[in-house]
Amino acid sequence: MPHRLVHHQSATELQQARRWMLEHGEVPQGMVDEALSRSWQRSRHAGLSPVDLATEQPVCSAPDLRLALDRQHDFLAHARPVMEFVFDQMRGSGNLVVLSDSRGLLLHSLGDTDFMSRADRVSLRPGALWHEADRGTNAIGTALADQRPVVIHGAEHYLERNSFLTCSAAPVLTSAGRLQGVLDISGDQRAHHPHTFALVRSAARMIEDRLFHARHSRDQILRLHHLAEGLGAVGEGLVALSDDGWVVGANALAQQWLGLNESRIGAGTLDQLTGIQSRLMPPGKVMRLHTPGDRPLFGRMDPRQRPVLNLSGSAMRSSVAPTATTAPERPHEQDPRLQEALMRARRVQAQGIAVLVQGESGSGKEVFARALHAEGERAHKPFVAVNCAALPETLIEAELFGYVGGAFTGARREGSPGRIREAHGGTLFLDEIGDMPLALQARLLRVLQDKVVMPLGGSKPQPVDFVLVCATHHKLRDAIAAGTFREDLYYRINGLTVTLPALRERQDFEGLVFHMLDQLAQDMKRPPVQAIHPGLMAAMSSHHWPGNLRQLHSLLRTVCALLEPDEHTLDWHHLPEDMAQELKAARGAAPGTASPVTSSSATATPPTPAPVLADANLRRLSDQAIQQVIEATQGNMSEAARRLGISRNTLYRRLKQTGS
Length: 660
Known about the structure:
Number of domains: 4
C-alpha cells in the first residue's frame, strides 16, 4: 500500500507556510510537500481556522457512541487484542493507541495515564470525531481521506492546538476492499520514534487478517507469499474463493499483489481476474504462480473446510448441480454477531470449557450447539440434547443420570444408562437449564466436578467425559437472586456466555428466508422459490417475530405447501389469512404492486413503481433515493438494505455500478 514518506519539515518552514496561508488564503506552492499541502487545502475549504482556539471540538453524544459501538461490535472484537498487543510493546513510553471507524469517530483507546490526560484536552478519546472536516489535518482524518498510511508530526497538524502531537495512522480495509476504520498511535511530538509508523501499519494488517478469517471461515482460502517458506506466516496474502471459484475477498496484501480493488472483488473468478487457475491447484501443495506483472509469488490452497450447520435451523447443503427440485447455491452472508459468537465458542470449547447460550425461545440455541459439535474435535462422537423444561420433574433425574434395573416402580429390567452417559466422548446439550429443579442442580454440579455419574439405585460411580453446552432464555442471575438457581452451578456452566440475536434483530434476514425456502423446496421435492414480492419481503423483515426462527420456518413451510407446482414467486395471497393481515397491519398499508425481490439481481425483471419506497424494486430506484435511505439510516447498510427490501450484497453492487 503506498504511503506518505516519513520525513519532517522544520517547524520554522511550517510556520512560514502557515503564515502565508493565513495572509493569502491559500497553501503556498512548494513550501510543504504535496500530500500535506492537499490536506491543508481540504481543511481550509472545510472552513477551519488553524489558530482559532475557541472552536468547539466535535464530540458525539453518549447514545450515539453506544449505537456506534454496537454497530462496530465485530470490528472492535478483532481490533482490541491487537491494540492490547501494540500497547504492551509501548507501555510507559507516553503513547496512545486509538481506533476509529470510517467516519473518524473514535471507538476505543489504550494509553499511558500521563499522556491520556494531555490527549483529553484535545478530545483524543472515544466519542470524539477526528475527520479532516472536523479537526483539519491529523493522522486519523488524513488516513481516511487519502486511504493510505500517514504520519502527521507536530506543526504539520492543521490546527495549532494539536501541534504537540505526533501521530502515525494506517487504514483498516475489509476483505471486500472497503474502508473499515483507522488504527492510530499518538504521542508527544518531542518523543517521536520512526519505528512507530512500521508498527501501526503491521498492526492494521493484523486486524485486517483477523477480520478476513472471521468473514471467510467457510470459503476456500488461497495463501500467497513471495517466499515459499512465508506461506502461513505473518505478511502473507489471503484470497477467499467461493465454491465456483469467484474471488469473494482478499486482504490488503493480496489486493496489492494481484491488482485487485473493491470494484473487482466479487466481479469474477480468480482465473478471469488474475490468470491464476485455481482448479489446477491441489489443496495443500505449494506452487509457483504466474501473476499479473510477473511478480514472483508462491501459493497454497487450504484444504476445503468440513460443512457446518447453518444457524437458520437446518444443515448447509453441499454444492450440487441445480435440478428441477434443487435450488442453485445462493450466498448467505450470515449475521456477523452469530459468526463472532460461533468463533469465540469454538475456541473455548476446544479447551473443554463449558458454553452457556442465551437467547429468546426459537432463536436457534440448539442449532448453535449442534454447529459447535459439528465443527469440534468430537464431531464423530454423540451429540445428546436434553430439554430440562420438557421433562416431568419426577422423570428428569432418571432421564439424566440413568438407573439400574428395578430401581423404582416402572423401571425397565435392564436399566438405563441415562442421557449424561450417552454423551460420553461427545457433547451434552442441556436446553432450558434454568428450569432444572434445585435438587437436581446439586447432582449435576457433582457430576461436573467429579466427572462421574451415580445411577439411581446403583452403588458404583460411572466415569463420564463430555463437553457441556447449556442454553436458557431466563436471566440466570435473577434466578440466583430469587433462590431458584444455584450460584455455584452457574459459574460451573458459564465458562463463556454467548447471546444469540432474536430474528427481528438479525442482519441477514433476506438471505435467511431464501436459505430456508431452498431447504423446504428440497424436502418437499418441489421447484425452488426464485423471488418474493418486495412489499412482502419488506413487511416480513420489519415484523416482530415473537416465535423467532421457529415461527418463520413454520410460516414458510405452509407457504411452500400452498404454492402451485409451476409457481416460483412468493406473494401475499400465498400467506395464511391471519398472517397476511398481521403483516399488512404492521406496515400500515396494503401491499403495492411491484416486481418481486429475487435471490439474484441478475434475474430481476423491470418493476412497476410502488407508492412505498421500501417496496420499490432496486433497478428503478434513483441514485438520489438510495442515498436518501442510506443517510436516513446514518450509513447503516444493513438497515438501509432492509428498508429497500434487498440484500446488503445487492445494495453494494448497485452502489458500485453508480460509482457511489
